[in-house]
Amino acid sequence: MLKENVDVLIIGAGPSGCVAAGYLHKNNASIKVVEKSLFPRFVIGESLIPRSMEHYEEAGLLDSLKEKNFEKKFGARFIRGEEVCLFDFSDKFSEGWDWTWQVPRADFDNTLAQEIVRKGVDVEFETEVLDVKFEGTNSKTLVKDKDGNLKEISAKFIIDSSGYGRVLPRILKLDAPSSIPENSSMFAHVKDVNRPEGREGTLISFDILETKVWLWVIPFSDGNTSIGVVGPTSYINSLSEDKTEALKSVIQKSDFYRDRFEGVDFLFEPHKIENYSCSVTQLCGPGFTLTGNSSEFLDPVFSSGVCFATESGMLSAKLFLRELNGEKVDWDKEYTEYMRRGVNVFATYVKEWYTGNLQTLFFHRPENPDVKRKICAVLAGYVWDEENPFVKKHDNVIRNMAHILNNEKSAQ
Ligand code: FAD
Prior knowledge:
The chain is an alpha/beta fold. The chain is built from 15 helices and 19 strands. It has helices at residues 15-26, 51-58, 62-66, 105-118, 167-171, 199-202, 233-238, 243-251, 258-261, 305-324, 331-355, 357-363, 369-379, 389-392, 394-411; strands at 2-11, 31-34, 71-73, 75-80, 83-88, 100-102, 122-124, 128-135, 138-144, 150-160, 175-176, 183-191, 205-210, 213-219, 224-232, 271-273, 279-280, 284-285, 288-290. Strands 1, 2, 7, 8, 9, 10, 18 and 19 form an eight-stranded mixed beta sheet that branches. Strands 5-4-13-14-15-12-16 form a seven-stranded mixed beta sheet, sandwiched between helices. Helix 1 (15-26) packs parallel to helix 10 and helix 12 packs across helix 15 (394-411). The termini are far apart. The site of flavin-adenine dinucleotide (FAD) has 38 residues, from helix 1, strand 8 and helix 10. Flavin-adenine dinucleotide (FAD) is lined by residues 11-17, 34-37, 43-48, 128-129, 161-165, 167, 185, 273, 276, 292-294, 297, 300, 303, 305-307, 309. InterPro entries: FAD-bd, FAD/NAD-bd_sf, Flavin-dep_Halogenase_NPB.
C-alpha cells in the first residue's frame, strides 16, 4: 500500500477545508487535502454573511472569488405578508465587512478549490477517507481513490472538514443531538425569467409563510435563482411526495413571489434534506479538530453555516500552526470555548426565530434603529463582539424585548 506523510491532513475541500488549506499553505506547513467528490459538485448553502469575507481574505482566496462576479449581497430582507424588514449590513453595530455574496455553491466551492490547487496545495479529488486510527496525536488515515487504490496517510494533525460526511464524528462516535427543533427543507434552482429589473430582482429574501415555515429566494448573477422552503419535518413531509409539486405548492402560498415564479420550471428535481441540524459531543481532541458541518449545523435561517465553517477552519489552521511552531495551545479554551460562544449566540437567534419572538422584533413598527443595528451585526456574523448587548445578553434580550412589545400591543 502507498504511504505518505504530512503535517496536516484536511478531509474535505468545501469552504472550511479550503480556508484552512489556504492559510496553512501560505504559512509553509506541509498539508494535504483529500476530497471524496469530483468538483464542481452541488451543495446547498448559497447565502453568505460578511464575517466570512475575512476568512477568504486571510487565506489568500478573496481575489479569486472577486473575479467571478458573484451577486453581491448587502443585507437581507424578511417578509411577512405585507410587512417587510430590510437589514443593511452597512448599518450595523460592530466593525467589519458590510457586504458579501449570494452564490451557486458548485461554482463558488470549485473556485476556492481550484485556487488552492493553483497555489500548490496537494488536493486529491475523488479520494475518500475510509478509516482513521490515532496513536496519541499522530494519526494514520486510510484513503481510497476512484480506481480503488488504497493509501495510508500519516499526519500530526487532522482537520476534519468533511461536512455531512462527518468522518471523525462517525469513526470516533462523537455525534450528539442538536438543540434545535427538527426541521427539514426542500429546494431547487430556476431560470429566473420573470426577474424584475434593478435591485428588487437581485435582493435575497426570506418570506415567512407561517411562524415556523419560510421560503428563501436567492438570486444569482447568472440569472438563476435558488428557491427553498424550510419548516418542521412534519410540515415538509405533509407536502406531496412529488417534490416538484410539493415545492411549487409552497411557492403558491407566497403572496410576494407567486407571480414571479408562476409556470417557471425547476432546473433539477428539488432536493429534500430531512432533520438537517446536527451536533457533536466535542469539537476537538488529541490530534484533530472538527470544523464546519462536520461539527455543528444549526439552521439555514440566518445563513450562518458557511461562516462557521470558515471561522472554524481558519481557527483550526491558526492554532495548529502555533503548535507546530512549538507554542502551547489550550485547545479547549482557544478552540472549543471560542467556537461554542459564537454558535450559542446563533443558536439563540434560530430558536427565537421559530418561537416567533425575533419576528416580533423584526416587524415591530416604528422600527428601533439602535436595536436594528445591533441585530444586524449578529446577522452579519459578528457574534463574538461582546460590546454588543444583543451578543452578550443573547439568551434573554430577544425574549424580554418581544415580551414587552407583545404586552404593549395587547394593551393598545
Ligand atoms: P461541505 O461544504 O459540505 O464540504 C464537505 C466536503 O467534504 C464535501 O465536498 C464532501 O464531498 C467531502 N467529504 C465528505 N466525506 C468525505 C470523505 N469520507 N472523504 C473525503 N471527503 C469527504 N449555509 C450558509 O452559510 N448559507 C445558507 O444559505 C445555507 N443554506 C442551507 C440550507 C439548507 C437546507 C441546509 C441543510 C444547509 C444550509 N447551509 C447554509 C449550511 C451549509 O450547507 C454548510 O454549513 C456548509 O456547506 C458547510 O461547509 P463545510 O465546508 O463544512 O462542508
